[in-house]
Amino acid sequence: MTENTNRRVQYLAGICASLAFTFTGATISWSSPVIPKIKSGEVNIQLTNAQISWVVALAALGALPGCYIGQVLSERLGRRRTICGAAVPGIAGAAMILFTKTPEVMYVARILMGISNGITAVVTMIYLTEIADKEVRGALGMVVQVMINLGALAMYGIGPFVSYNVLNSLVTTLPIFNMLVCLWIPESPYYHLKDERYAEAKKAFMMIKGCKDQKWADQQLGLIRMHVRESMENKSTLKELLCKVKYRKAVYIIAGLKIFQYMTGSLAIQSYLEIIFTQSTSISGPYVSIVYGFVQLGAGVGATFLAGYFGRRILMIVSCSGVALSLTAVGIYFYLQDYIKINSATLSAISFVPLIGVLVFNILYAVGIGTIPYIMQAELFPINVKTVASSAATMISCILNFTVTKSYQSIKDVFGHYIVFWIFAGIAYVGVFFVYFLVPETKGKSLEEIQDFMQGPRHLETEVLNVPEAIQAKRDDA
To answer: pTM for the whole thing?
Structure first.
């Protein structure tokens, strides 16, 4: 970064793009205040426990086609227009829920909301990593978790105290607002360079960097352009991504991180939060949910600052360790309550355990494993497979999310609440060793430096300043 540049546009564009995740957080946590309303008869829809579990889980299933749509639109229309377009199915789904009186229409509406979330998840993280300087890329990526938490807090803090229709009206306004604030953001220079639009790339680059020095901009774009050209010459399909040796390391790492991100139960806990607290503490479920929401939001903000000081690996190791221990403690409480059936006096003495355990889980999940996999899936793959890889990673997330949220109720009913939490904890313990032995550190590295590390050094003409001459030299060498 030179004296003639500043990061104001990076921060503003990153925050505006990340706002789309408030709808994701609201979609995930929507069921927490809604399930009690349905069971109390407040909602003019009759749903069984099985139907409720489908309503909760179908948003994750809907994100599967959303991932593919996001991949295609991101490549054809660009990152910016895809981020804006992601709001359309979200608006449609939220409006359908607002007016429906049948479970079948509610299923369709949740799928549409999931499609919106899938598109957002694929394209937004790509956009953030492509516009951010390496010094702030981690912190800017962490803003995503803050926005998810903000959307969840709106559901926890407002949902229990307003009518069903008012709550769903709030959900409907979120994607509309998100789309409007993203109309101004600049396109990613990487997207323009991919299609050889150098003038547009330079204009976007100088806007993003706050730069007036055209010579410096040409130097930097020259290096980026050579990486992009080299990557696009080897543009790959999903089959090649999974089969080529040079991508295998990144595929293994991201697949593993996605398992630990979702199979530790965060989305299931958020979806059934009010029910969990109602069954485990004397404090009112809605009020505890609000506390959870504020703690979650604070943890996300704190994680944003921590990402600027600590590496990805240490944050994820601490995160997985804390998640494992806290979930183990919650499982022990439910084991004593539901299986051992200890007397109420003894149980009341430790009634704080589920609350403290879930809050600690919330904090430590946000610090690392809840957010960093999003950042790394956009960092570890080169641009020629980035959208394919990001789409595939998000599809894995959707499948895992659907599996966890759909099976949560069934496992709880058959085996008990404690088994659910111990399964989540066991996966987190494995995650500690996975991160320690297999995950590389990417903090402080440019996207080009990360690719040199992941795929081996490539001999780029880093000292050549004139862009056309640099490209011609590369062709002559070939």
So the answer is: 0.72
